[in-house]
Design goal:
Layout lengths: L5 E7 L10 E2 L6 E2 L3 H20 L6 E7 L3 H17 L7 E4 L1 H7 L7 H10 L5 E9 L6 E2 L12 E2 L5 E2 L1 H8 L5 H11 L2 E3 L5 E3 L3 H22 L5 E7 L3 H10 L6 H9 L15 E4 L5 E4 L2 E4 L3 H9 L1
Parallel strand pairs: 1-12, 4-6, 4-12, 5-6, 7-8
Antiparallel strand pairs: 1-13, 2-3, 8-9, 10-11, 13-14, 14-15
Amino acid sequence: MGNPETSFLMARHTKKTTKPEEGSNISGEFYQGITEEGEKLVREKTREHLLNIIESSEPGSVVMFLGASDLPRTKSTSQVSANEVKSLLADQTDQYLVYEQKDIESMVDKETQCTREVLSKTVADNPDKKIVLSYPLFLKEFSMLVPEKGPRANEPDWKSAGVAEKKSEYLLELLKRNNDDEDDSLFDWVKNKGEIITEDGKILKGPNPEKVAQDYIQGMRRLENFAKELFPGRPLTIEVSTHSWDIDAFIAYATHQGKLDSQTLEEIEVGTGGEKKFISEFEFPVIKIGGEKQTLNYRGKEWELNSPEFMEEQKQE
C-alpha cells in the first residue's frame, strides 16, 4: 500500500450534562457526561456525515475512535458514534468489522495477552476488510483540567480537577467581561493570548491559545505514531473528541502558517456559510496528512496545513 494517508476527525464533544456524574441511557447503555439530546445528536450526525467518511475511505482502512480529554463527555461522545456505526454496518460483515471497547476487552485473555497484540493481529488477519475500533484514550495534550499533583499542577488551564469542573479565575473573568457570550469570549482569549489584567490590577493567566494549538498537533502525532505502529501499511482514520475554543484555535493556527489572531479565527469560523460561530456539538474538521497535499476541510472550505510543525514534517518526508 506504499505510504498510506492518515485522516483525522477532530470533533467537539456533544451536549453535556449539568452534573458530570449524570449521563444518557436512552439506548440501554450509560454514557456519562452527555445528555439524551446529546446522544441523539451524535447518532444523527454519525448517520449524516461520519458514515460516508468511513464508506469512502480507502480499501483496508482502519477507523479508530481513539482520542479524548480527561472529561467523560469526550469519551462518551466517541463511544456513542462508534456504537451507531456498529448498528449501521451490522449487515455488512463481509466488508466491515466493528469492535467497541467492550468487544475488544472481551477478546483479550488478560493472563496471556495484551490489548495491543490482539488488536494488531485482528487487523493483520483481515487485510481485505475495513475495520472500525472504538477505544478512546485520554491524552494530556487535550486536557482542560489542571491536575492537583505532578509536573502540570501549576500550569494555567481552563478548569481545576475536582467536583463539577471548577472554572479557573481566568475563565470566570473572561466570560464576565464578555457578558457570558462564548463566541466573544473565544475571540477575547485569542486576542489577550491567555492573560488578563483585571480592573483592580490583578493578572490572571489561562491557557495560551498558540500553545493549545501546538499541543493538539503533538497529540495528533502521538495517536498517529501509535496507530501506525499497531497497523503498519494500513490507511488510517482517527476520530478524536475534545473541546470547543481549543479546536477552533488549532484549526486557525494550523491553516494560517501558525498565525492565530481575530482575523484568522474569523476566517475559519465563517467558512463558506457567512455566520461567525465557534464549533458546534459533534462538528469536526476532516484533516488529511501524509499525502502529497496536507489539508483540512471545514465548513465548506479546504485549507492547506501550513503551520511550522506541518511544514517541517513535509520537508522531512
